[in-house]
Design goal:
- By secondary structure, the chain is α+β, with helices and mostly antiparallel strands.
- Helices cover 25% and strands 25% of the residues.
- The strands form two sheets. The protein has a six-stranded antiparallel β-sheet with strand order 1-2-3-10-5-8, with no helix packed on it. Strands 4-9-6-7 form a four-stranded antiparallel β-sheet, with no helix packed on it.
- It starts with a helix and ends in a 5-residue tail after the last strand.
- 26% of the residues are buried.
- The N terminus is likely disordered.
Length: 227
């Protein structure tokens, strides 16, 4: 027997309803596009917007001047300030460097209590454009800091390229799972689980996972004096 119209309508609604447990794949777009850089991006989008507007005003920078200094388009900067777009991880780095502030300064929120528990279930995870690289802050984003602590994850057989950070910035990284090739200013080092490395991050560098399983790293980022 053929379905009656109400049954057909119900089936159409059920087939069209997305599964909440399965997030959509990251959209294919150019670097600096408007795909969310964060899990739970709705919370951080207005925070980034407010901080960007404040830092730009404090420095007397127009959108045009900041665009030239950062390499991020004026249109994208305007969308970020209006809370219409959350930048990708690479775009955030470019903006932070152009403003001369720590990376976390763009994501800082109201001051938190002395003791803070950051539950993994509610972690805000920063991702690369294609989703192969993720960074989870292991410190409260309540204010800019000169030292930051991150958990990094890199998908099998993938690479993440990083632009040079501000002069005086260093990275102290330990690999806890898998293996990672770290290339700094053209010099390559291979780290296995348990190996650590310290390097000056004010030159271009990259992380490559040559293995067939996810690589996990922990990173301490230290910024130079801004005085």
């Amino acid at each position: 027997m053929a379905d009656t119209p109400p049954v057909k309508a119900r089936k159409a609604q059920q087939s069209a309803r997305p599964l909440a447990a399965e997030p959509p794949p990251p959209p294919a777009s150019e670097p600096g596009g408007d795909e969310p850089a964060f899990d739970d991006a709705s919370d951080l989008t207005p925070v980034v917007a407010s901080n960007l507007k404040r830092f730009r005003a404090e420095r007397g920078l127009s959108l045009e001047r900041l665009a030239k200094a950062s390499g991020v388009s004026r249109a994208m900067l305007g969308q970020i300030e209006l809370g219409q777009s959350t930048p990708t991880i690479n775009v955030l780095w470019k903006i932070a460097r152009a403003l001369g502030v720590p990376f976390s300064a763009l994501m800082s929120q109201a001051a938190s209590p002395v003791t803070t528990v950051m539950q993994s279930a509610h972690a805000r995870i920063l991702r690369s454009k294609n989703g192969d690289f993720s960074s989870r802050a292991l410190f409260p984003m309540d204010r800019p800091r000169n030292v930051e602590f991150y958990e990094l994850r890199l998908a099998p057989r993938s690479v993440e390229h990083a632009d040079a950070h501000a002069p005086g910035t260093s990275e102290n990284l330990i690999v806890t799972e898998g293996s990672v090739e770290i290339t700094v200013a053209g010099e390559r080092r291979v780290l296995e689980a348990g190996d650590a490395i310290l390097f000056e991050a004010d030159s271009p560098h990259s992380y490559r996972n040559p293995g067939g399983s996810e690589a996990v790293m922990y990173l301490v980022m230290t910024y130079g004096s801004r005085g």
